[in-house]
Amino acid sequence: MEKIVRDVGEIQSRLLDHRPVLQGELRYFVKEFEEKRGLREMRVLNNLQNMTVETNELILPKCLKIMQENLYEAWTTLVATNHMIQRIHQRGQKTQQLQNERLETSHETYKAEWDAFMKEQSLKQAAIDEEHNKAVQKLKEQYAEMERDLAKNAFL
Prior knowledge:
By secondary structure, the protein is mostly helical. The chain has helices at residues 2-16, 19-35, 39-155. It is 96% helix and 0% strand.
């Protein structure tokens, strides 16, 4: 049983403990870096450091200055544009309000005209109905008189 526990422990350490492998890989990398590449990597690193210093000391302040100048100009342009847009919006609202008032006024006018028209039509209809009723009554009387005359003449 002891052998099994020892074997399992050894297998576990080989599977989970990668330190020896990593140490070997690191030694190989350092050896290759130092021997084969030599000073070439150092020159590349020095060039990168010089470019970084130049960027920090020369290019970055120049960019900041240009950005601040242009930022102020952009800000003033934005403020002016915003002011113009607000004026346009106010004009649009005033125009819309005037159009709404005109529409409401014309709607009220048309409604009043329509009501007057309907009242006039109602009066005309009542007058025509009355005239029609009078004409019907007159015709009834005329026919009744004609029937009386006919009845009188029929007996003679």
